[in-house]
Amino acid sequence: MQYLAEHEGIPLEQIIVLAESPMQFPALGREYQHVTLEAEQNDVRRQFVLLVDPKTGEVEPSLPQLRAAEEAAHRAQYGALDPLLYNRLQAAEEGDLFVVAISPAANEHTRQPEQLFAEVAALFPEAEAALQSHGAPWLVDDPALAAQIGLEYQARLEASVALSTEPILTWLESQGVAAESAPSIPIVSATLTKAQLLEASRLPAIGRIFADDNVEGPASTSP
């Protein structure tokens, strides 16, 4: 809170902690507290998110930079492989088969739910109000309008997923490997050999490769 008071000029007594939870960056060997704060300034309530080092109390100024550094460190050690899958591969033969789930790397086509929410809300005044008051653009009073907004969101979500997963599907096809995917979830499932997995782990289009029993891909947010 002291950091916020110093950098934003908000009195300490006007700052409250809404939530905090640990946030780990294993490849960097770092752990922070992810702290959500709320403050009232000039009759306007604002929320802030800070990353605080629990050992030193210092605030990490840029979460995007920290995530980029974590990803670079992970890539240097594991490629795109999840650490548990990486460890399994060390004892495997080249022809051993693994059922895996593959998520795409972030690129210009990647859209997070909040980005899609904002895009859809910009098309409908009622959606903007619903997003601000209820957290989702399709939560409007008119059922027909809610359905229209929901369809618009779903279409944008599926278009984003299709563009993000297309390079993965193309590569799998070149390997003669059958793939399974869902229109609204950016995950591709396939069965690959150790050799294929090692090659896939170096592809820039692939974000992460999980063993089938270690999948924690992003959830689909749908109306």
Characterization of this structure:
It is a single chain. The protein has 223 residues and is of the alpha+beta class. It folds into 2 domains: 2-69; 80-211, no CATH class. 40% of the residues lie in helices and 27% in strands. It has 7 helices and 8 strands, in the order αββββααβαααββαβ. The strands form 2 sheets. A 4-stranded antiparallel sheet has the order 1-2-3-4. Strands 6-7-5-8 form a 4-stranded antiparallel sheet. The longest helix has 32 residues, at 143-174. It is flat. The two termini are 36 Å apart.
Give me the secondary-structure topology:
Layout: H1 2-8, E1 15-25, E2 30-41, E3 44-52, E4 59-60, H2 63-78, H3 83-90, E5 97-104, H4 113-121, H5 125-134, H6 143-174, E6 179-182, E7 185-193, H7 194-200, E8 206-211
Antiparallel strand pairs: 1-2, 2-3, 3-4, 5-7, 5-8, 6-7
Helix pairs in contact: 4-5, 4-6
**Number of structurally distinct domains:** 2
Number of helices: 7
Q: Give the overall pLDDT as a whole number.
A: 87
Give the class from helix and strand content and strand pairing: alpha+beta
Order of helices and strands: HEEEEHHEHHHEEHE
Strand content: 25-35%
End-to-end CA span: 36 Å
Low-confidence stretches: 214-222
Helix share, percent: 25-40%
Shape: flat
Kindly report the spatial arrangement of strands forming the biggest sheet. 1-2-3-4
Measured on Cα atoms, how large is the radius of gyration?
Answer: 21 Å
The overall strand count is 8
Taking the sheet with the most strands, its summary is: 4 strands, antiparallel
